[in-house]
Structure formats: C-alpha cells, structure tokens
TrEMBL record:
Protein family per UniProt: Belongs to the DPH1/DPH2 family. DPH2 subfamily.
Protein name: 2-(3-amino-3-carboxypropyl)histidine synthase subunit 2
Organism: Datura stramonium
InterPro entries per the UniProt record, alphabetical: DHP2 (IPR010014), DPH1/DPH2 (IPR016435), DPH1/DPH2_1 (IPR042263), DPH1/DPH2_3 (IPR042265)
Species lineage: Eukaryota, Viridiplantae, Streptophyta, Embryophyta, Tracheophyta
One protein family per Pfam: Diphthamide_syn
PANTHER family given in the database record: 2-(3-AMINO-3-CARBOXYPROPYL)HISTIDINE SYNTHASE SUBUNIT 2, DIPHTHAMIDE BIOSYNTHESIS PROTEIN
Cited Gene3D superfamilies: Diphthamide synthesis DPH1/DPH2 domain 1, Diphthamide synthesis DPH1/DPH2 domain 3
Pathway membership: Protein modification; peptidyl-diphthamide biosynthesis
Keyword terms: Iron, Iron-sulfur, Metal-binding
Record function comment: Required for the first step of diphthamide biosynthesis, a post-translational modification of histidine which occurs in elongation factor 2. DPH1 and DPH2 transfer a 3-amino-3-carboxypropyl (ACP) group from S-adenosyl-L-methionine (SAM) to a histidine residue, the reaction is assisted by a reduction system comprising DPH3 and a NADH-dependent reductase. Facilitates the reduction of the catalytic iron-sulfur cluster found in the DPH1 subunit.
Needed co-factor(s): [4Fe-4S] cluster
Length: 498
C-alpha cells in the first residue's frame, strides 16, 4: 500500500486544517520511525494544498509546526500527552497500534494503519468454520485490518447464505478529552460512539466495546451465545479480548500465516496464574502502586481509589512513577509485597514471573482487598470500568482468614497508634519485635502480620547503609589512595617478569 493511503495523509491534514491547530505532535512507535520523515513531508505538502484551497493564494503550511515524538515513557498504544506537552502541542497524531484509551487534556487523531490481508481466503475460512460451529458468529479484528472488513462482508455474502454473522465496527479515530469516564468494556451500555463505519444499532439493543471496537447484540442475547472469530495477530489486543470474554468460544485467523488457531490452553494457565496472584496479594502488608500512564482519562481517580481501598484494609500504600517497570527497577523496593499496575487495558497484564514481587491489576486488587469479593471467572482489564461513585468496603484487618499461600489462618496485625510518649529507642524496639514475629509450626495459633510500613521494614534490615554518627563533629582524616593502572601501581616495587 502507498504511503498516503496507509497513513491517511488526507484525513490527518483535514483534521489539522479544520481545527486550525498550529503545533502538532506526531507520535510514532519504534517500528514506524523509518517512515516519519516521509510522513512529515507529505503532511506539509497536503497542508499547503489545503491552505491554498481555502485562502485562494499561494499560502504555505510553515505556520503549522510538526514535532516527531518517539521513545514514549509508557506503552506505545497510549497517547503520550506528557511528551506532547513538552512541545506545547495543540493535538497529537498517534500512529500504529493503539488501545483507543481516552485522553485527559489533548485531542488526538489515531492512525491505525493498514495491514495486508488475503480477503478471499479469510472469507472462505469464516464460512467453513461458521457451518461447522452451528452457532451465530461475531467477527472481531485487529484495528489494522479494519479497512478489509467491508470486502469480507461482501465476500461472505456471496459465498454463504442464511448465516447469522455480526461484525464489529471501529470507533471514530478522533478522540476528544472528556471529564466523564463512562466507557464500558465488555458490559452492556447504550451505544453512543461515533463509528467510522456507521454503527447502526436497533433500539434497546445491548452494545459492547473493547479496544476501539464496538458492536451490538439483539435483546436477550449474551456474548456466550456467539462464537468469536478474530482476524489478527496474537498481540495485546487479542489477549485483552481473550481475558475479557474467557467464557466464549474463540477462533483466531492468523493473517500472516493464513491459518486458523483455536487452541488457547495458555488462557487457562493465565487465569490460574492471576488467581494465584490474588491469593498472594491478600497476604501482603505493604503495597506499591505503579503509575503506568499519565494520559489515560481517569488514571488519577483510580490511583486515589486504590490508595483508599488499601488504607481501609489496614495496609500501607506507596505510589511509584518510574515509566515502564522491569525487574531491576522494582527490586529497589524489596519492602513491597505486591504492586498494583494502573495502566491501559492492553498493558495491564504484566508478566511478573521474573519480578521479586508480583504485579497485579486494579481489578485483582479489588478482589483481594474488598469485603465479600470473590472471583467468579469474569475479568476486567479496563480500570475505568472500576471507577465507582461510592467507595468499596474493604476487608477488616482484624478478621481472621484462611491463607492458601501460608496454609493456615491469618490475622493481620492492625497498626496501632502510640498514644503515650515514648523515646526513640523504645519505639524502634516495639516495631522491630512486631515485624520479627514468626509462627510456631507446632501450634495452630494465628500468623501475625509482618512489617506494616517501609519504616518498619527498614528497621529490621541487617544492613542500613552508611552509618552516620552525629555526635562526632570532627572530620575524619583521609588517605591518598593508589595511583596508576591496576596492572602496576606507581607505589608497587615488584618488577615485571620477562
């Protein structure tokens, strides 16, 4: 496909010209940086043409400044509003794979690109599997294949007859910041999205949306009644659909290999792993909140909601902003028993097998720390769906519970405020004794909690770093070290052997 068609130069230039933006940030993932210079040149040429068309003069587009952004701090799928603000940009043009997460402050235009697809073969596979399945089909797809859905519809209509096949529509590529966070992910709601392909739904039909796709089902129909036929790669967007609709039968058409994949045993292993992390989080005393985005609408509200939930559960919460987390970064905070990753739906499922402490999602944290919460198998990856107007009731830290990880009943020790004035040594001894309590294996007594804060954890460590003695106000004498190279210092008298 040519450059102008793949990167939608006409639509992007029309978006910039119609809204009179003067400073535009172009966000590219690493794999598309090679095309950035050509895209900038094509946009300048198209903006010059639009300016001349509107003004009737030989105007140019030099007053529109284009800034290329790369190496985003967080996931490439989210709009990098922080990076765009460094250039005082009026809007962001996002290229490549996207999660369609709403922005907080800046408007954005999403260019998903166009990947090649064997339409006749895909339609043939869809018809064959539909007849074999014997149940209605819902066609979902990667956003890069949205341009071929119209052809697939026409081809399936000519090859197959009397088949109930529904197709998802892609949402509008224009994102306008909003103060409301009512976007749903996998739950019925009235369809209010402006679909690029003309989303038309019947009255009172249940509408769904996930990852930039939206569709509706007839009244009385559920997602479990449909076979999900996904066209695309095994990427984060498909993993999001796989986890959200884990009770549905799913088959994936791999466009690069031209074959069908219907074996997803890994999904069950992932769900078991997530359940294990929830049980492990219940035993945590110190929780770290990882900020995985600074642009998705509602992220700050979710961070405050997680803090409130953790505090009311009698645990200690710390917030960390460190960009993309990795084992080395999180290992600097060994006092944290578990981390909560607040990010977009397609980067929330962080594989933490190599991490010192597990990393869970806000949905898993609400199950672990909320009163009466049990996992029924349903899974929510979009944190904006968890934003509630009323605070969730937290589990009491004085209630005994059975820990599957420790194999016994656990009673979390409640943090007690010291009412009487104590000297520093006595306070340190008290918190150290509480942090070092262990369970008697021969008895069936309750297992007390460990360190309840970073200060208590630090007090029980054998190494505290540099020892500073404030009572000694005199500087220590210093000695001059060796000079020269390690192979032979200047003060060494040993002669080199021949």
């Amino acid at each position: 496909m040519d450059l102008e068609s793949t990167y939608e130069i006409d639509r992007v230039a029309g978006f910039i010209s119609a809204r009179a933006f003067r400073r535009v940030a172009l966000q590219f993932p690493d794999e598309l940086l090679k095309d950035s210079t050509r895209i900038v040149a094509a946009l300048h040429e198209k903006l010059r043409f639009f300016n001349q068309l509107h003004t009737g003069s030989n105007g140019d587009a030099k007053d529109v400044r284009l800034y290329v952004m790369a190496d985003t701090m967080y996931g490439n799928c989210c709009v990098d509003e922080v990076g765009a603000s460094h250039a005082n940009a009026d809007c962001v043009i996002h290229y490549g794979h996207t999660c369609f997460s709403p922005t907080s402050t800046l408007p954005a235009f999403l260019v998903v690109g166009k990947a090649s697809l064997n339409v006749p073969l895909c339609a043939q596979k869809l018809c064959e599997y539909t007849i074999k399945a014997g149940k209605p089909i819902l066609v979902l797809y990667g956003l890069e294949y949205a341009h071929a859905i119209t052809e697939i519809k026409a081809s399936v209509g000519t090859q197959c007859f009397k088949l109930e096949v529904r197709y998802a529509d892609i949402m509008s590529p224009v994102i306008t910041p909003s103060e409301t966070f009512s976007s749903m992910n996998g739950e019925p709601e009235l369809c209010d999205a402006q679909c690029a392909n003309g989303c038309s739904t019947e009255e009172n039909n249940a509408s769904y949306r996930i990852g930039g796709l939206t569709w509706s089902l007839p009244v009385g129909h559920r997602m479990e009644d449909y076979l999900l036929f996904y066209v695309g790669s095994d990427d984060s967007a498909f993993a999001n659909i796989l986890m959200t609709y884990n009770t549905c039968e799913i088959v994936r058409y791999d466009a690069s290999e031209d074959l069908l994949v219907n074996e997803f045993s890994q999904q069950k292993r992932i769900l078991k792993r997530r359940y294990f992390l929830i049980e492990k989080a219940k035993d945590a005393s110190i929780i770290g909140i990882l900020v995985g985005t600074l642009g998705v609408a509602g992220y700050l509200h979710m961070i405050h909601q997680m803090k409130d939930l953790i505090t009311r559960a009698g645990k200690k919460a710390y917030t960390f902003v460190m960009g993309r987390p990795n084992p080395a970064k999180l290992a600097n905070f060994p006092e944290c028993d578990v981390f909560i990753y607040v990010s977009c739906a397609q980067t929330a499922l962080l594989d933490s097998k190599e991490f010192l402490a597990p990393v869970i999602t806000p949905f898993e944290a609400m199950i672990a720390f909320g009163r009466g919460s049990e996992w029924t198998g349903a899974y929510v990856t979009e944190f904006r769906d968890l934003i509630t107007s009323s605070p969730m009731e937290a589990k009491s830290q004085s209630e005994a519970r059975f820990s599957f990880i420790q194999g016994g009943y656990v009673e979390d020790v409640e943090q007690q405020e010291v009412e009487e004035v104590e000297d520093g040594v006595t306070a340190l001894v008290n918190i150290t004794e509480k942090a070092l309590r262990v369970r008697d294996k021969d008895s069936q007594t309750l297992i007390p909690g460990t360190a309840k804060s970073g200060a208590e954890y630090f007090a029980t460590r054998s190494y505290h770093g540099l020892d500073i003695h404030p009572e000694n106000n005199f500087p220590e004498p210093f000695l001059i070290g060796k000079s020269g190279r390690a192979s032979g210092y200047k003060n060494e008298t040993t002669e080199k052997s021949l």
